[in-house]
Design brief:
The structure is a homodimer.
Chain A: E1 3-4, H1 20-36, H2 48-55, H3 59-71, E2 75-78, E3 82-85, E4 90-93, H4 100-104, E5 110-120, H5 124-129, E6 138-147, E7 150-160, H6 161-164, H7 177-185, E8 191-200, H8 203-209, E9 216-225, E10 231-240, E11 244-251
Helix pairs in contact in A: 1-3
Keywords (chains A, B): DNA-binding, Transcription, Transcription regulation
InterPro entries (chains A, B): Bact_HTH_transcr_reg, Chorismate_lyase_/UTRA_dom_sf, Tscrpt_reg_HTH_GntR, UTRA, WH-like_DNA-bd_sf, WH_DNA-bd_sf
Protein name (chains A, B): GntR family transcriptional regulator
């Protein structure tokens, strides 16, 4: 196969012809990542001519790429200004165990609407994961989290009672659970197992998170343990995909962190 | 606040009344995670009576929870059998740098339709991330990945020419890029920076991945480096959210892996 250094997004000698939609998606991926990583601090994208030069592609492809991002709600066209960023997606690290508010406090005021805070008998699977005996109780906290005025996530949290009871009288509306738990246990948390799904929001979730129906959301399960390996905190988060992204640094070697309690699945 | 050990999903003395949709979502989160982690090897969910007991909730709440999972395409009701799992979501680890095929080969045959494999002049931002000088070239590979007959992801890969050129003659349809790259460079890869977004698929992506319009998909950017820190492989993946989830083990301490090249944003 030969070099075709003219238009990098034009169909080269591949096994099938690529459509303009293919090329536009290719441009949109790069732009989305630049926007999320803060590459355009002015909040305005480079003009069409610059984008055509940067991506070595046609005007129509650039326009279609901007259309993809517009449909996703990432950018909008503003008369006399250009293509402006509507909403930035913030990056939350998965490199270490960090509360969302710790990441987001740099970008605005994080507040929580406490929907439930009580002692309950948990679903059997939740009891199993928290090593709570049959018939035992847990503390259940449900919060709607906002960044500024915009809903960001709906957080369902199950805590073992020893760790959770003191939190029922704490400032759940204003503070991160991690720091409250660390005050409650008198020391740092240990490790966590995290699983991240991408799903279309059901109507109830869309309404709560103030998104269009079917908005792509992350559902995150996070099981957090004390340094001695005992699980104390099981959370199910629904996070707006248009507000948050996850970031991690990986290594080709063996797993760098092993769950102290082994496989909890 | 007092204990209400009867129905854990019923509205306790929280600041506002929760709807049945709230309680159904709570049940659905737990079930989705159980399905993804392989808790129902028969492929059939426990019957309604068992689910009511396990979750300590009402029949109507269980039915609404199953409705949420049905709308997501996770389960379906089959006459005379019960609620069966339509499609399992597989978990891909973010604990270490692993190719998707390495994870998925346990579940079926992974194959790739090679859409493009050529030498191109990359978009400026791609050149910057791969430390390719202005006007330089890269190898571009675009593949549609399938697990069995079902499309799983669309992978756009930019490789530095020294690493990528030998791959143009390799078995791109049958093999994982990571193992091909490691053959090409004669040793293991080093580290990678990964960012994961959740977006609604544009019409072109939906068509390629054979999903309903607007399906929630992950868009993954992965920049992979050699052990000496030199970036050689920049990938943009679109992965069906109903087929794959990401999993990681985190630590409350400082970052466990630092990018050898520092912050590449």
């Amino acid at each position: 196969m030969t070099a075709s250094p003219s238009d990098p997004t034009a169909a080269p000698a591949g096994p099938r012809t690529r459509s303009r939609a293919d090329r536009a998606r290719q441009v949109a991926e790069v732009l989305r990542r630049q926007i999320a990583s803060g590459a355009f601090p002015s909040g305005v994208l480079p003009d069409e001519r610059s984008l055509i030069a940067d991506h070595g592609t046609s005007r129509n492809t650039v326009r279609e790429a901007l259309g993809v991002l517009r449909d996703e709600g990432v950018v909008e066209r503003r008369q006399g200004v250009g293509t402006v960023i509507r909403r930035r997606t913030y990056e939350h690290t998965l490199e270490r165990l960090t509360g969302l508010a710790e990441t987001l406090s740099a970008y605005g005021r994080v507040s929580n609407e406490v929907r439930v805070a009580d002692v309950i008998r948990p679903p059997r699977e939740v009891a199993r994961k928290l090593c709570v005996p049959d018939g035992g109780q847990v503390v259940y906290i449900e919060r709607l989290r906002r960044l500024g005025d915009d809903p960001l996530s709906l957080d369902l949290t199950y805590l073992t009672t020893d760790v959770g009871r003191p939190l029922l009288d704490a400032d759940l509306a204003g503070r991160d659970l991690f720091s409250l738990i660390e005050e409650s246990v008198g020391g740092p948390l240990g490790s966590a197992s995290v699983t991240v799904h991408a799903v279309n929001a059901d109507p109830g979730t869309s309404a709560l998170l103030a998104t269009p129906p079917g908005q792509a959301v992350f559902t995150v399960e996070r099981l957090t343990r004390l340094p001695d390996g005992r699980p104390v905190d099981l959370e199910f988060l629904r996070v707006r995909g248009d507000r948050l992204a996850f970031r991690a640094e990986l290594d080709r070697g063996t797993g760098v962190l092993d769950s102290p309690t082994g496989d909890d699945r």
